[in-house]
Amino acid sequence: MTRTDAARAADLVVLIPIYNDWASFRLLVGRLDEALMRRPHSETCRVIAVDDGSTEPPPSPFELPALRRIEAVEVLRLRLNLGHQRAIAVGLCQVEARCPCRAVVLMDGDGEDSPDDVPRLLDRCEAAGGRKIVFAERVKRSESLLFRAGYLAYRLLHRALTGIPVRVGNFSVIPAPLLSSLVVSSDLWNHYAASVVKARLPHDLLPTPRAKRLVGQSRMDLVALVTHGLSAMSVFGDRVGVRLILVLGLLTALAVVALAATVTIRLSTSLAIPGWATTASGLLVVFLSQLILLMTVFVFVALGGREGSSFLPARDYAYYIAGIDRIFPQHE
Q: Containing H/E element for 264?
């Protein structure tokens, strides 16, 4: 695996997963540099784009505006398309292992995570003494009405199944000490934000509106949204299993009560219609058997969710890296 001067430390590393969004990425880098210039600190910054198996290579030469605060822009090429969350996991592991820095800014490359909010996130992180991951909490979204309706349904389902509200995405600042803890969480391979919550890493929220895309249309369709939601909920598989067991237990208790009431009415009163008790009892017994079978399955799912994963991001991430290309400055 080839790599550029990865050992040289920068104050900040900005990690951006990319899939064919090179036009947006080019504009984003320029706006990010302008936003960082407005900070009173003279920190150095390095931008790493995680190329998640793009079918369109970055333009060559890759033209960028004059950058003053960003000292290097690199592309971390993956061997294949892993999906947004796993590309993030590989990128974070690469930064933790090869790119010493004070903090990592994680943001999307389409411009919906506004560069103007990066200084605010950094300020909040510094105010916490660099001891908390700071997430951008979405207070206003810019997607279509249909997408927002689907996202609301996902949030309600996530809250019902896990007991945890969905309030954040990927846009965040991660202090280096917490990054070293995060990359040994196997849940990071499925969902970044959920893994932070599951690992009980200290975090804070900063209300921010979601900006509009810089170029083109969103690639997040219904299938991608469902996959994203399932990935997040899979991190809390044990909690989901326990909650489903409780619901099934309640339904089982109701079925037993209904069965007992049916038998009592049949044997103790004259209210029964011939044949109805046998039919009702048979249906309740079938229903009760299915509930008990489902409870057994969910018990094993909940217990299985507590077993350690065989995939450890910090150990295994390197298998997915094809190489690293520097696109700025080009003379190095």
A: helix 237-268
- Which one, of 116, 164, 166, 118, lies nearest residue 15 by Cα? 118
Which two tokens mark 284?
């309740």
Compute φ and ψ for 309, nearest 5 degrees. -75, 150
Taking a C-beta distance cutoff of 8 angstroms, is the pair 48, 74 a contact? yes
**CA-based end-to-end distance of the chain:** 18
pLDDT digits (tens, 9 = 90+) for 270-321: 665 666 666 777 777 777 777 777 767 766 665 555 555 578 999 999 999 9
- Copy the structure tokens of residue 264: 């009592």
Neighbours of 200 (CB within 10 A): 7
Could you tell me the fold of the domain covering 12-236+311-328?
Spore Coat Polysaccharide Biosynthesis Protein SpsA; Chain A (3.90.550)
Please write the tens of the pLDDT for every residue from 134-152.
999 987 665 667 777 777 8
Give domain limits for the chain: 12-236+311-328, 238-304
HSE-up of residue 18 (Cα within 13 Å, Cβ side): 28
